[in-house]
Amino acid sequence: MNWMKWRRLYYGISVSFLVLAIIPLTLGKLQPAIEFTGGSRLVVSSQAQNFTTALETALEEKNIEAEPIKPRSNNEYELLTQTIDFETKNQLLAAVEESTQDKVTEIRFQTIGPSLGKELIQKTIFAIVLGVITILAYLWWQFKDWRFGLAGIAAMLHDTTILVGAFAWFGWFFGVRVDVLFVTAVLTTLSFSVHDTIVVFDQVRELQRKKRIIDVAERANLALSQTLTRSINNSMTILFMLAALILLGGESLHWFSTALFIGTLTGTYSSTFTALPLYVDLAKKK
């Protein structure tokens, strides 16, 4: 099948999703968690019907800046505030218990200072940049052709931008925040994307060695036909597992699994319909 005949269509699909991803990013809708911004996170459980009102009143009385209280399952609530210490947190919960005449159970309390958040941002950026540079160097060394490396990096940036943009949309409409687990999902997406890309590129190289096919588009078409079924089957097994985690894995795994699900979809698409067509166009301009 002449897959490369439809290169412009593949590019159009990629550009459309990239534009959709960039829109909320440019509007500043990506919401970092306190791991990056600094602050306190308090997760509690209460059976009181007026718990939310009582907590809002206590926060106002103590002049604590906080975001809207986020209800969770099983009568749990999550609260993000400015940095507070344990004493202030205990006073806050005592005030709520006094107002509601009901026990408040603390599930989790976490405080991260601004300096630690800034350091984590720097380390996150360094990890992503180091990963991209290492992968680029590996592709160049493995295939001895900068076009493979450039096409592979373009596919990875394509996947990462769409994933980050998707979570900017989630943050805009659902208040989802990106945390360290999300960074893990981004790095996993990078590795998955380059893994599939290497499989296709290696097949292109083998066809050039064994069958001596001169036309680069013909090599790409044959390589894609030979690897597409394997790539889809491999991705589907991962997607089924992630779908199960999204539906049944609980709130702590929900958005992490969602990030991996999106990353797997984009990685499968980009390795075959972004990286390979881009390599063909670069090779034709040689």
Molecular structure report:
The chain is α+β, with helices and mostly antiparallel strands and 286 residues long. It has two domains: 3-34 and 116-284, Up-down Bundle (Multidrug efflux transporter AcrB transmembrane fold), CATH 1.20.1640; 39-112, Alpha-Beta Plaits, CATH 3.30.70. Helices cover 72% and strands 10% of the residues. The protein has ten helices and six strands. The strands form two sheets. The protein has a four-stranded antiparallel sheet with strand order 3-4-2-5. A two-stranded parallel sheet has the order 1-6. Strand 3 and strand 4 (76-81) form a beta hairpin. Helix 6 packs antiparallel against helix 7, helix 6 runs antiparallel to helix 9 and helix 6 packs antiparallel against helix 10. The longest helix has 33 residues, at 216-248. The protein is elongated. The mean pLDDT is 89.
Quickly list its features.
single chain, 286 residues, Alpha-Beta Plaits, 4-stranded antiparallel sheet, 6 strands, elongated
